[in-house]
Specification:
With about 425 residues, the protein is of the alpha/beta class. It has a 5-stranded mixed β-sheet with strand order 4-3-5-7-6, with helices on both faces. Strands 13-12-11-14-15 form a 5-stranded parallel β-sheet, with helices on both faces. Strands 9-8-10 form a 3-stranded parallel β-sheet.
Length: about 425
Amino acid sequence: MTEVNSTPAAPGKPCQLHPQSMCPAFGSLRILTRIEGAHPVMATDTGCLYGLTFVTHFYGARKSILAAHLGTEELMAGEIVESTRAAIEVAAKEPGCQLIPVVSLCVAETAGLPEEMLPKRVNDAEVVLVRVPAYAIHSHPEAKDVALAALLNRLGDREGARDKKSLVLLGEVFPADPLAIDALLRQMGVEATITLPGRSIDDLRRAGRAGALAPQHPFYRETMALYRAWDTPIVGGAPVGVSGSYAWLKAVGSLLDLDPALVTQVAEAEREQAQAILAAQPLSGRVLVTGYEGTEIAYARLLVEAGAEVPYVSTSIASDPLTLPDELWLRGRGTREIVYRKSLEDDMAALDKYQPDLVLGTTPFAAAAKERGIPAMYFTNQLASRPFFLSTGMAATLGFIKQTLDRTASYQWMQDFFESDDTDQAVEASAHA
């Protein structure tokens, strides 16, 4: 259930041959189980099944994952295909079943599950093989990409004319963000937005005819490659911050051939609103932005635009051409290090080097910062669970960051209290009592 960083330790550096995260395959299950009418089937051993089922329910899927019992005896007997087909038949009998994603993991016997030996359709349900070899996928965001690309490749409807005024918003984001983006785009003349990954199978089908694709996150490589093969234009960047949102809105207008005057009017109004929010909630202080969501560089850009110093950014995803504009923007404004495929050791070294006022990061990294009296937040649960895009998201994010920076004195007071002699004496007296 863990991803292992297999980089050997260099002389004088800590060993990195240890787990860095949970199995990234849960990212694919997270989006597959949330599709209405989808009943996933897992093709893997019982250990992976147990761990991933637990994690999937923890993330609110509220849906059972069907799987054949594949213990050592069954795996060695070569019964994988037969057992998987039997599980597919059971899934097809579920009420309202329209889609059966068959998820094969990196267990040697199931990773090479032959697609041609599985049915393409059972009753009213499409059967789609989703290969998620977790040891070859370094982060759970990238596993989402693998799953979504497999579904679109099979279900995306390319028949008929393209919906030239429609846009696919690509990326799992806070639910309020797509609504805000859609409302603004409709003012520009966009007729429909489709948010992927989502809950609707119909959205997957409609997405094949969209006029353009707008990745909100930079790690959907396989999905973007599919759209390029379909000759669908792709919007660069994301509606983040003042300059980023303005440029993104103008790009959407250009690719969808919208009225230039109307697009400029909407984009300028949004820019003015964003600038007013920055003026009302300026930030000051040094912040480290780290995590495994894949959105860390975009968050860092927003914080810098608001006045914060961000010398260090790290993320679990790989470098991609989509991240280059934000990376160059940050480096031109004082960010000294941007680390892709990061490890906890990279983040700890940055904590020693930069002495931040606030840390945004993973659970262990946030805990390490708090031990030093530095305010810290778990990026995934406390930032990624809030609105982020356009001026509405900017207001929510910056307000939360500002409140946390303002609590620095409280963190330092707690550290001083627990490290003081009075505390030690109180603990000792309590033990004697």
